[in-house]
Amino acid sequence: MPIIRHEIFIQAPIDICFDLARDVEIHTKTTTRTKEKAVGGVTQGLLEEGDHVTWEATHFGIKQKLTAKVTYLKKPTKFVDVMVKGAFHSFTHTHQFMEKEKGTIMVDIFEYKSPLGPLGVIADKLFLEKYMTEFIRSRAKALKKIAESSQ
Questions:
Q1: Residue 137: exposure state from Cβ atoms within 10 A (0-12, 13-18, ≥19)
Q2: How many structural domains are present in the chain?
């Protein structure tokens, strides 16, 4: 079960970073490469504990839908979303925020299990883990740019 951990420093207050990370419209703006959009559940505004959102996106040239639920939220330091329906066998995405002098450290921890048993493990090694790592990095960089430009 791969675990991807990404950390980035953002020169913006923790409250701003936390809210941007759970804002549905901002998520769409930070995932333009995969054309993500919310098509079910909460489709705008800030996600709260218990909320569901269904994302439609294009990955590997295939349009897919994925539904996630926010299972834990503690403002402004942490929230967790878990896939309840989608292409993965399972995933848990933990978003952590730590206040530092002159900004915030945002940490993404993405734990997932690919579908298709042994074939999924091979896919992880060949391309999926690298793809997901780049997806998380790219989104974090875009979120950083938005947060820092709002200062």
A1: middle
A2: 1
DSSP β-bridge partners for residue 41 = 53
Question: Domain containing 121 — which CATH number?
Answer: 3.30.530.20
**Contact indicator for 93, 79 with CB cutoff of 8 Å:** no
Q: Which amino acid is at 50?
A: G
Residue 138, classed as helix, strand or coil, is helix
The whole-angstrom distance between residue 84's C-alpha and the CA centroid of its chain comes to: 14
Q: What is the pLDDT of residue 151?
A: 66
Mean pLDDT over each residue of the chain, to the nearest integer: 94
Whole-number percent of the chain with pLDDT over 90: 81
The CA distances from residue 32 to 29, 49, 74, 111, 115, in Å, are: 6, 25, 28, 23, 25
